[in-house]
Hints:
Distance between the termini: 65 Å
Strand content: 5-15%
Number of domains: 2
Strand order of the largest sheet: 2-3-4
Structural class: mainly alpha
Largest sheet: 3 strands, antiparallel
Number of helices: 13
Number of strands: 5
Order of helices and strands: HHHHHHHHEEHHEEHHHE
Radius of gyration: 23 Å
Amino acid sequence: MPVPTLREMQAAFAAGVLDPSLAGRIAGAIDSDGMAPERRLAIYRNNTLASLRGLLERTFPATRHLLGPERFAGIALAFIRSAPPDRPQLAAYGAGFSGFLEGWAEAGPLAHVGDVARLEWAREEAYYAANAPTLGPAAIARIPVERYPKLRFWLHPTVRLIWSAGPVHSLWQAALAGSADQPLAGTLKKAAEQVLVVRPGMTVVTRPIGAAALVLLEALGAGLPLAEAATRAQAADAGFDLQRSLASHLAGGSFASCG
C-alpha cells in the first residue's frame, strides 16, 4: 500500500478534525502515547470548533442576538464544517457566513438576519482594510465648477455598501443594545434601509443612507463621472439632492481622491 504524502496526511487530518466519521483515515498515523488516537483527535476537534465558533460569535454579535445563543452555536458549527478556514488568517474567516444564513431565514427578525450578518462582516472588512487619506470639502472647492460634471471620485478603500429589503441598520442597533428578551416588533415596522460602512480614521462608522445616495456611491465606485452617477441617483429618487449628498460624503470620509 503506497505511503500517503504529507499533503494527503494534512488533508485527512483536517477532515478528521471537522467530521468524526472520517477520523479513522488518520487515526493510525497518530502517536497514541498512552491515549487512544481517536481521543486525541476528539480533543483537538473540540478545541478547534470551539475556537472558530467563538470567533464567529465575536464577529457577529447582533446576528447571535437575533438567532439566540444556542441556535447561533448550532448554525456556526454547521458553517464551520461546511466552510472551514482556507487560509492561516483568522481575521479573514467568516466572509461566507451571511450567505450561509440565507437558508435559515424565517419570518420576523430572522427574515433579515442574513443582511444583519452582511452588515457585521462589512464592519469587519472596513476595520482591516488599508488606511488611506480622505478627500475633504476643501479639495473640491479648489476645482473649477465647469469640471464637476466629468469629475470622477474614488471611494475610500474602507467603504462598504449594504442593500437590504428590511430595516437592517435598526435591527443591528436594536440587537446590540437590547436584552435577550427585548421585542423587535417595533423595529420590524420600519422601512427598508441601506447602510454605508466606512473607516476614515481609527473608528468604523456605520450609518443608514438613502437608496439614491447608495446608487450614487455605487456608480462613482464603478468609475462613472459625477454627472452620470447623479443621473442614476435621481432616477432612483427624483428628489435626490446631489449637493447635500456630496457634502455629507466629503465630510464623512467616503472618498479617497478625485480627478
